[in-house]
Structures are given as C-alpha cells and as structure tokens.
Write a structure and sequence with these properties.
By secondary structure, the protein is an alpha/beta fold. It contains seven helices and 17 strands. The protein has a six-stranded antiparallel beta sheet with strand order 6-7-8-11-17-12. Strand 1, helix 1 and strand 2 form a beta-alpha-beta unit. Helix 2 runs parallel beside helix 3. The longest helix has 19 residues. It is elongated, with a radius of gyration of 25 Å.
C-alpha cells in the first residue's frame, strides 16, 4: 500500500481533517498515513523532517478549507508566503518530486488560482481536485477519493516489494533482522521473462576502505544521483532472452542462476540490445554507483556487518574474514536471491559472481570523480575494466563492499557476470 501524506492547516480544517484521516486509515491502514506535525521529534529541524516524510510518500492530499489561503501570522502576513510555513514545505516538496498531489476541498472552499500562490506552489492550481462535504455526503465523497487513490496506485505509482535485512556481529551471528520495502520497476523481456530494477535513492557516501581494511583508497566522499539497478545479477534466462544464447558454465538448471562466462564487451552488448528493445537507456553501473548500492548506507566491510558467513552469501567458505566462521564451499553459482538482501533491496552484492562495472582500472582513487560517474582513461583500447563483489570461488576478503579488481575486458570466466543500470526505469 502507498504511503499517503495528509497536509492540512489546523486553523482551517482540523476537525474534518481528523474524519478524513480516520476514513483513510480504515481503508489503507494506519502505517500508510502521515498525518500530524505532532509526530516530529523534539530538537529536530521540522523543515528537514517534513521534507524527509514527503520523500517517502507516494501521494499527498492537500486539505483546503475556506481560510487555507488567507490565514495570516501574528504580523498579518499570509502564512502561505512564508518559506518556513509547514503547509508550504509539504506541498512544495511533493510537487518537486512530481508525485500525485490531490487538492481536497472542504467546507465549500475553491481551488486557489495560480496567481494567488507563491511560484513554487502554482502547479497546485492545475491539479484535479476532490471534494469532501460534511454530513451524509461525507462518506460518498470519501468513496470517490479512495477509488481515485487506488487508480493512481494501479496506473502511476511505482510498486514496492518487502524483504528482510540481517545484521551480524563480529563472530557472524545474526543480531538483528529488519523488515524493509523498496520500489522496483519490472521490464518485460518477452516469453514470460522479466527483469526487475530497484530504485536507488540519491545520496552521499565515503567510497573506499578505511585503514582497518588496508585496501582501497584514498577514501573520498562521492555524491550519487538517483538511479535504478538490477535487483539481481543478470540471469541466464534474461541473457538468453536478449542475446539468443547462454554461454554459462553452470547452465544445468541454470535459468535463475546468474549468467557467467561473459566478457565486459558481452555485458555492454547486452545493455545496448536491451536499450534498443525497450527504448530505455540501459548500461553497466559505474564503480561508485556499485559500491554505493552495495553499502546501502553501511560503513562496515560487508552490508551485513563486520564479517560474513556462507549462510548470507555464496563464496569459498574454507576461508574466513575477521572472527567469522568457516562455512560451506559450494563450488558453483547459486540461484539469484538465495541470500538476504541489503537495505536497498539488492541481492547477491557479495559473492556468487563478480560484476563488471563501466570504469577503466586505476591503481588508486587519486583524482577519481566525486559525482558518481564512471572513471574512464584516455582512449578506450583494452584498458582493464573494474570487477566488483567477489564470487562463489573466492575468499570473503574479496567480497567486501570496497574490494575492487581489474581485468581485461575480453576476460571470460565461470565466476564473472554483471547487473545493469537503467537511467529511465520507473519514469
């Protein structure tokens, strides 16, 4: 179900806003609604908090009563003209995200004209409005509104999926399990084969490893725009659907295993053909995008914590990391999604198969881009390309979020695959 943000002005519509909230809760559930600024924690910048809540919602309902536009502050100025006005911040943020914003007119109010609104809110004047009348018409009007929201969900709102994220301690024991949801987009490849991509939110992170991991550096802060990344490595079925062949070593019962024995050139060709077939811009992730997506907000060696186990990823369990335990050595790939996801909803970011990135190899991050883009050397040639994530055959050190390796772009190996980025999925 969507998260619905209910915006209203207390002096204008507090009592009917409560009735509207109760009715929406009855249909969508309490966890699907954000209703009142009273929930803002003490000491928190309310502007940032409200913007954060709106960033998570999928529909905003702006309850507009007769005095919504004309309400003034103690100095006699219209509150809507104040950039710190709660109602303005809420609607501004939703319009900036271009999510559905539904003006809900109560007590005979009219929809404001664009000329009556601050520039940042003028788009509200062109949103189709709903009505909630008092008395016996109330529930009839709410039925119409709820059907409209359900139509938006079905036609326009990006679907979500649920998953669980686990965290382990230094010995590899699970100490926490958290329920999460993420937005995804499903690409139809034909013949009942689909490709799921997960929305990776924009953000900043510290790329590379700290001195305690003694590897990839120097650490540097990178800002990454929003993108959509394959929920899993590309599978053998997906590769077959686009390329008309399956080069994989582990092809027996392999439809849902990652494709392997694909070179960097093969992976790029797959992206090109997929783009031509779908009309959307598919490509390999940059190294920065890959690490940002793998970490999913964590700073530990693995997105699960300070170590990893073979219950959580497919790698050579004869080897350990830190104080973690030994485990099984499967000696082959496993079906994608066999192990827990990270906090972004991505599977198999540690182990199973190495994953190609778009970047050329550089010995260190000195001079690396800080905007999330791929780092290319002058002249494409046969410069080594980046591989990330480790594999079924490697030790866990190589599965770390920060670990990087470089190989010739024509390398073909039974432990090398890839996943894709789409710049236009879900739009």
């Amino acid at each position: 179900m969507p998260k619905i943000f209910l915006s209203y002005r207390r002096s204008d519509s507090e009592d009917i806003a409560g009735r509207i909230y109760d009715r929406l809760v009855a249909d969508f559930g309490k966890g699907s609604l954000f209703f009142d600024v009273d929930t803002i924690p003490f000491g928190i910048d309310f502007r940032e908090f409200l913007q954060g809540e709106v960033q998570q919602c999928q529909v905003l309902i702006a309850i507009i009563g007769p005095t919504w536009l004309s309400t003034t502050d103690d100095d006699g100025h219209r509150r809507i003209d104040n950039t710190a006005d709660w109602v303005r911040i809420e609607i501004e943020s939703a319009l900036a995200r271009d999510i559905p914003v539904i003006p809900l007119l109560v007590r005979g109010a009219r929809l404001p004209k664009a000329t009556e609104l601050p520039a940042s809110l003028q788009a509200l004047a062109y949103r189709n409005a709903a009505t909630a009348r008092a008395g016996r018409d109330f529930h009839r009007d709410m039925d119409v509104l709820i059907r409209g929201i359900e139509t938006l969900i079905e036609r326009f709102i990006t679907p979500t999926f649920k998953f669980e994220v686990v965290t382990v301690n230094a010995q590899g024991r699970v100490v926490n399990t958290t329920a999460k949801t993420a937005e995804y987009f499903r690409e139809d490849l034909g013949n009942s084969v689909t490709l799921d991509l997960v929305r990776i939110p924009a953000g900043q992170f510290l790329m590379g490893s700290p001195d305690s991991e003694k590897g990839e550096g120097p650490q540097h802060r990178v800002s990454v725009p929003e993108f959509w990344l394959g929920k899993y490595p590309v599978t053998q079925d997906q590769y077959q659907a686009i390329m008309g062949k399956n080069p994989s070593r582990f092809s027996e019962n392999g439809a849902n295993r990652p494709v392997e024995q694909v070179s960097w050139h093969d992976a790029v060709a797959f992206c090109q053909k997929l783009s031509q077939q779908t009309g959307r811009p598919y490509r390999l992730p940059s190294e920065a995008e890959w690490e940002y997506a793998c970490r999913a907000g964590t700073t530990t060696p693995f997105h699960v914590g300070p170590t990893i186990t073979t219950d959580l990823a497919n790698y050579n369990g004869n080897f350990t990391y830190g104080a973690g335990p030994t485990g099984v050595y499967r000696e082959q790939t496993t079906e994608v999604g066999s192990f827990p996801a990270n906090a972004f909803g991505l599977y198999d970011m540690h182990g199973n198969v190495w994953e190609w990135c778009a970047d050329h190899w550089h010995d260190s991050y000195e001079g690396a881009p800080v905007d999330g883009s791929a780092w290319l050397a002058s002249g494409e040639g046969e410069n080594p390309r980046i591989l990330r994530g480790g594999s079924w055959g490697g030790n866990p050190v190589r599965c770390r979020s920060a670990f990087r390796s470089g190989f010739a772009p024509d390398l073909i190996n039974g432990n090398v695959g890839f996943r894709v980025v789409c710049g236009g999925a879900g739009t």
